[in-house]
Structure formats: C-alpha cells, structure tokens
Amino acid sequence: MAQLSSNLLYISFFIYFAASLVFAISLLGKKWRKSDEVTHAKKWGRGGFILSSIGFLFQLGYFITRWIAAGHAPVSNLFEFTTFFGMAMVFAFLMIYAIYKSNVIGVFAMPVALIVIAYASVFPSEIQPLIPALQSNWLKIHVTTAALGEGILAISFAAGLVYLVKKVNQEKASKSTFWLEAVMYTLISTIAFVIIALSFEAAGYSSTYEFVDVNEQQTTVEYTIPTLIGPKDASFVSGNEFGPLVEAPSWMKGEKAAHKLNTLVWSMLGGLALYWIIRLILRKRIGAALQPALKNVNEELVDEIQYRAVAIGFPVFTLGALIFAMIWAQAAWTRFWGWDPKEVWALITWLFYAAYLHLRLSRGWQGEKSAWLAVVGFIIIMLNLVVVNLVISGLHSYA
Amino acid sequence: MKKKNRLVVRTVILAAVLLAVGYTFYTNFFANDSGVVQAGDKAPNFILTDLEGNEVELKDYRGKGVFLNFWATYCEPCKDEMPAMDKKYKEYKEKGVEILAVNVSEPKLTAKSFADRYKLSFPVLLDKGNDVTNHYGVGPIPVTFLIDKDGKVIQKTEASLSEEVIDEYMKRIQP
Amino acid sequence: MSNKTITCECGHVNPYGTEICEACGKPLQGDLESKKLLNMRYEGSARRSQTYKTTIIDKVWNFFSSVKVGIWIIVLLLVSSAIGTIFPQEMYIPPLSEPSEYYREQYGIPGQLFYDLGFHNLYGSWWYMLLIAALGLSLIVASLDRFVPLYRSLKKQRTIRHESFMKRQKYFGITKVEGENPTLSKLKEVLRKKKYHVKEEDGHLFAEKNRFSRWGPYVNHIGLIIFLIGGMLRFFPGMYVDEVLWIKEDETKKIKGTEEAYYLKSDGFILETYDNNDEKFKDAIEQSGQEVVAKNYQTDAVLYKQVGDRIPGTEPELEKVKEHPIQVNKPLKFDDYAIYQVDYKLNELQSMTFTMDKKDSGESFGELTIDLYNPKDEYKLDEGYRVEVMDYFPDFEFNDKGEPTTKSKIPNNPAFILRMISPDHPDGEVAFVAIRKNLEPLGENDYKMSFQNVDTKNVSGLVVRKDNTLWILGIGGAIFMIGVIQGMYWNHRRIWIRRKEDEVWLASHTNKNWYGLKRELETITEKTGIDMPQDQSEQK
User: Fold this and answer.
1) Cβ neighbours of residue A88 under 8 Å, at least 6 residues apart?
2) Residues spanned by the domain of B15
3) Which domain holds residue C182?
4) C80 CB near a chain A CB, below 8 Å?
5) Nearest CA of chain B to the CA of C410: how many Å?
6) Touching chains C and B? (3+ Cβ pairs < 8 A)
7) Domain total for chain B?
8) Which ipTM score applies to this complex?
C-alpha cells in the first residue's frame, strides 16, 4: 500500500508537470496554433485544467492510500505536510480556474505547486508513528484546513506574480525589476536545492563530523551534501571526506547552525548557477523574457483573482491555522496559545493579510502594490513552513 | 447638543478602555499573587503535629503573639537563624510570645535529628505534603509571619533574620 | 448647527463632510462635470472623526479612528512578533538555566542583545500589551466611526439617483430603445429572479442584494473585540488557574488551585513506546535515530472531592468522584478544571532494603526496608537484633562547614546514620550508609548493612488548568468567523436603472468581485435586450 501510494504521488507529479506545459502552450505556442487565438487558448486551457484535475485525483489517491497504510491522516511530518500543501494549492487553483477560466494563473500556479511538492521530497518520507501529542482528530482537521487556507492564499501569489511580470516596466532596471528577479531567483534556488539534495542522496553521500557544542558536549553531525561550511573546530569522523572549505563563524552557535548554513549556501550557489544559465540562454531578465507572453492578459482580471484568492483564503486560514489550532492546543498543550514560534508565525501571516485587506479596501492599494503584498504574503507562509520548522524549531518540529 | 452627546460617548468609551487596560496592567505587572497570606490578613488556622506527636492548633494561641516560621534542614539561611530564634524564644516565652517552626514536609526523622542537634526548645511542627505551607502561599524559605494576639498577620518576611531583628519582632507581637 | 450640514438639491440634509448625497447620490464635492469615477468607499459618507477637532478626547479619538493608524499598529505588532521568534522566549529555554547567561552562551552577542532589550519576554512586555490594547481601541473607534454613517447612507439611499451619480459608476451604459420594450416590469422580473430586492419610483429602478455583507467587517471587528476582552479577563481574579502538580504513584495529593475542594490519586504512570520492529514504522524509527518513539503517556488518576470543611494540616475526608486515565490530548475534566498529562519522571527512589550481616561469618540477621520519604526510628530484626536510624539525609552532601546535610527533601542520594544493635554489641555500632558507600565513623564494626535492592516509583507531571475565559474567546472567535465570511463570501451589488424617453440608463456597483457582477450584468442585459454597460475604468 505504501509503495502504491508513493507511485501515485510520482504519477501526479508528472501529470502536474505536463499540465504546466499545456497551460504554457495555451498562452504562447505560436507553432502549435492551428486555430485563432481565442479558440487556441480555450482548447489548451481546458486541456490544462483536465490534466491538472487528473493529477489532483492521482494525488488524492496517494493521500488516501497513505492514510490507509499509516492508519492516520498523512499530515504528521514535514514531508506529508508539504506534499499536502502542494495538493491544497492545486485544489485551490482548480477552484479559481472553475470560476475565472484564467490560463495564465495556471502557468504560474502549477509550477509553484510543483516546486512545493518537489521540495517535500527532500524530507524523510517513511511512514512515522504518531507521538502522543499528535494523537487527536484535530490533527487532520487543523492541518488540512490550515494547508487549504495557505493553498488558496498561494494562488493570490501566483496571480500577483502574473500581474507583476506583466506590469513591471522592463525597459530599464529598477527596484521593481530587481525584486521581481529576486522572487524568480528564490524559486529557482528552491529547484536547485531539491536537485542538489536528491542527487547527493541518490549517490549515497554522507560525511560525519564531531565537534564540541555550546553546552561543552561532544556532538556529531551528519552532512548529506558536501561540506562547504563545517562546524567550528570539527574533526572528520567517517563518510565522504571533503571539506569543510570554511568553518562557520564562531558567533553562529545555534543548534546545527553550521549544517543549516551549509544547506543554505548550497541552495544559493546552485540557484545562482541555474539562474545564470537561464539568463545566458534568455539574454535578458527572466521577467523581461516572460513579459511578452502575457501581453494579452487582462490585468484587471488578474488583480481581481489575486484579491479574490485572499478573500476566500483568509477566512479558511483563520479557521484552520488559528481557531482550530487554538482548540487543539488547549487539549494537547494545556493552553490555547503559548507563543510557540509556529503559532507566532501563523499570527504574523494573519496580521499580514489583515493589513493587506485594510490597505486594499480602505486605502485603495490595488494593482501593483497589492500584487507585491500578495508576493510578500506567500514569502511569509513559506518562511513559516521552511525557516520556522528547520531553523527556529519549537513545539511543531515533528520532522 | 448633538456635538455634546458625541463628546460624552467618546469620553465614556475611551475611559472604559483606559480603565480596563489600566486594571489589566496593574494586575499583570504590579499586583501581588492572590491566594497568599499577607500582612493585614487573618492568619488561617491549622492543626499540625509536633515531633512528639502532639497536635498543635494555631487557634489555641489566641491571646499570645506567634512567631510562625517556615523552614527545612536543606535550607542554609533557615538553619542560620535557628540559634538566635531559640535564644529569643527562651527570653520572650514568659512574655507571651510563642514560636511555631513549621518544617516543610521533610521526614520526621530528619527534622527531629536536626532539632536535637540544635537543641531547639520551641515546638517544631511537621507539615506533611506541604499542606499548611501551600495554604499560606509560602514559596522560597525561610519565611516568617508575625501574628499578633488577635490572630492577625502583622508582617511577612522572606529573609534570614538576625538576633536583633528577631528581638524587635518579638517586641512587636508581645501582647 | 445648520452651517455644519449640507443640503442637497434633492432636499436631503447631509452631515458635514459628506461627499455623495446620502439620498440621491449627487456628488457634493468636487467638479460636477468630472468624468472621474466616484469613490464609493463608505458610500462617500462623512466619517465623523474628520469633522470635529476640538478637545483632547476628540484628538485621541480621531487618531485611533484612522485606518492608516490601525494598519501601522498591525504592522508594528507583526514586526515585533517576528522579532520575538529569532531566539527562543524565556519560557522555552531549558528550565534552571539562567537567562542572563543562557542567551549569551547559546547565541553570542546577538543573543546578549536580545536579552538586554528584553526580547526574551517580548509577548509579556508592557509595550507589546500596549500595542494589543491600541489595536483593540482602534478596532472600536474606527468601526464605530464608519459603521454609523455607512448604515445611515445605505438606509437613506433613494431609488432615484442623480444623473451624475449614475454616470460616474464603474459600470454605466445608455441603450437607445424604440417603443416600450424593455418595460420596467420586465427588468424587474429579471432582477428579482437574480434575487435582487427591487424598488420602483417614477421610471427608475433600484435593485440591491446582499447588503448584509457590508456589515461583515463590523461584525468581525466585534468578534475580535470580544476575543480581546476574553484575553484581558484572564488577569481578573478567579478566572484563570495554571498550576503544576507532580504526583507519585499511589500518592494522594490536594489539587492546587481548586481551593481545597479536590484531591487526586495516581494509581500509576504508564509509558508505552512503539515496537521498533513494527513493519509499518520500522523504517521511520530507524531513520529518526531515536531509540524508542513514545506511544502513550498516561496517569491512571482517581479524583476525590473533599467532604465538609477542613482545617489545614488535618486529614481530609474524601469522596471518590471518578477514575480517568489522563493521557496527552485527553485531560481529566471536572467543574471548570482540566488536568493534563505533560511530563514524567521514571524510577524515582522510594525505599531501600538492607540486611544486617555479620562481617566474618557473612550470616544475615534480618532484613529491613526503609521508606525514604518517612523512615522509622527503629527497625526490629531477628531476636536481639535491631537497627536504629539516628539521622537521615534524603539528598546527602557535605556543606561548606563539612557537616553532613541534605540538599533537598527528594531522596536523590539518601544517606543514613544507623546504629546496629546486636547481642554482642548491646550499645550498638554506628554505620554511615549511603548509595555505594559504607563508612564506619566510630571505628571498625563487626556488623555491616548490606544493600539488597531499591523500590522505585514513577512520578507524573500534571498541569491543573482552569480558564473561565474560554467561552468568551469561543464566542469572539465564532463571531469573527461569521463576520469575515459574511463580508468575504457575499458581495453587495446594486443596479440603478432609469427609463428616459428612448433611453435606458443602467449603472451598477459592487463592493467587490467585479468579475461576478460583470457576468451577472451580462445575463441580465442579454435577457432584457439592453446593451451591456461599459466598464468605464478601462476607457482611459
């Protein structure tokens, strides 16, 4: 059953990939165009939608079979949650597509969902037993609702990105072009990170170091990618002998700080290389390269989709990530709120979208400003998923 | 007229918020914990057994001043004040001042051997399960309550006391 | 006060500051001929706060009435909340560690700075609480200032709208028609089918639906205010109890915080772990690097209620209320209280068993078991043999003066001074007995205490919690959700139609989801044969 489950996930991943391509063709694809522009977009758009739906059904199959295999809802660790978050994004996209029939959202939303699911694959995917704190019906209720809320909000990011790619003036470099490229670079770095992590894992790379940590304890740390940055005064124990090229600065004393920094540096370098190759091929900014493809996009509709996704997602997020979370925390941790980092970041996300809504409704921040806010909102959500779990680590670090 | 009403409404709302926030801040940052016996309170009655197994009830000491001390053998400052307490006890017992030294839930044997070693002449009471200690809201020890002849707490001290201070305290609760 | 009001040409008297007449919609400010779309936010009503600036009260009020100020408060809360997560808060650092040192040791100079600035207790700091209070005040003031005039204008709106009001809506169109069709009654019918409330007056139609969604923001703000009040009530006496209760197996303890009313007995603490060879979880457990993965923490608890009054220090009279296995996620609940499983200590020393042996022959003269929480003065052994306990140190150490003493009352390192009495030594021999230690301080003995075994017990770490604010928070949260759904999932749509000779004018407005409105207008115009109004914002 577990094997079937992971196969279904692979299949859905490739179908999503195909769907992304089909959406791209619906937008560009002059070569493919046999009919007039409108019919072409309609036809390929419908194809993308159907493919995405099929992919979603396969992923639903993964979810159900894994649930059966594990005996509990598969949302209990980082692999499962991140995968589910990707699935929620696809679901939210399908919902929005059903309303607005906007192909261009698919061109951006589906690849982002793909990256999220790919990112999930770097975490251990074995079926884990549930520790006592997680043995509750609220696990599935809280986590799925929160992920769905975040998935819907992520669609607003995709729409915001479309808006920015279309609207930001690419004729000369500016703050806007810089930050838009920074967003692109971040997405690319995530891809690079996944590629690097999976390649070294496939190669069976591992090296272990021993060092004295802040509590004066002998500690070992295992690197699964080559050590660019090692812990201070570490000695090599076993595995692949490479590096460290540099030692972590002495003020970086957090738990596994050097290891985390090493991963970050790898992702950034990998992202840089990938970004550089893309720029070499394109010979212009990624934003500038994408812009012509969006010339027929109705920017006002995209702006509205972006806002609508927030309008739909915000209540769902509040319910799942705050209200259900509080009800569960009262049962599991004796208090509904305890300022655990994950809780705080859920609050931050909520405050941010509250500010977004007030800026948009009361102060007329629409269009470009609003699109930038949607991008920042998604960054906050991803920070909560990536940084808070991996770097800050509080009560929520189950993986 | 309308304008005046509006000002009244605004003033009332702002005052209500200010009051609520002020009270919250006061209880959160300045007020002492509730449920703790403090100066001015009536000393809650209790019944404990001494090292000989006799029951001692606080109420029976009405009319006398009571120097109520909470201690344990693992508390060095508690031990430090014991000799002075014993000395002053002998002096003030005649004058109607009693010492009750409540041991904070140690085994009887530990308390007794300590009392024997220090040759304590005042009653040492055993508080099994910290019952009385918790009831009085005693945290870190030593803690001393001065109880006057009417059974009212006139002072609570959370420090090791010198002979002079003990003398002064005894004078204050002397009936 | 008449100079403070604006009388519109339609005869309606508007409050000072009104931008669009509440009744007929005629723009009252700016150029009448302007083609610019009307700003329909709050219906162009007069926000009261902007109109008077006299007393301090008004100034404070106006400050908190501003959405801009509200957003700034949100942003400040957001940023400071984020700062508090850079390093762990004080409550999450290991217990017993000294915060002033911990942050510097663990995180270096940034950690020291974090501590010095008081960020280690950020969420309980006076300024963070002040920010939350400011947010609450802003919610009250800003909502009140907007709700009242908005309610007024939506209530006072008339069917007939001023021409310039219609022309300056986002969706506006004029259709040239010949003859009667479409009649107003036909239009009315179509609009009613779309669930609009339609009013007719003198050749004009006014269709409106989902006005209630406009109240959504105010409803959710009320929910938030109730929630904040709930949060504040925690600090009021008697609303909140949070106590830690460590209870040993077979022990009965008064439950702190229940005002003497309840007692709890532990019938045992159970720790269960997953089977490391379980097919399903084998890989994950191996991969995690942990030796075992916990499956269940459980305290089998019995709840008792005290009968009658009791003087502290005396034994209570108890009545059993119920038995309940307390597990994580499954607290024991009674009255307003809940008792949670949060921690445990395994194998705490409870008693020690020795035999008294003669050294040369190795012969044993009886066994004694000493309860480490309450040793007896004397233990009788075989005829003529006994052991007197002269002194007992539950957590033994030598103090600075070199005296034997105890560090605490917990028997972590129990030590005894014993007198062994035997027929050959009627006055006894003194032995100092501790874990893996046997001293003979007063010279060589003929007898010795031989350690046999220990008896241990598990201790459950429980939390006693009462939170009488929960229902208020629940109501606040529910009202917030109702308000936010009401405001977000419905849209307030209005359509104004006017029949003027051979023209049909149509103007429409929605507070959001223009795409939905557009599609609705498409079906309405299709069914009635009038032209689809144009989106005037697109024609620039």
Assistant:
1) A144, A147, A148, A150, A151, A152
2) 1-31
3) 159-210+491-535
4) no
5) 9
6) yes
7) 2
8) 0.90
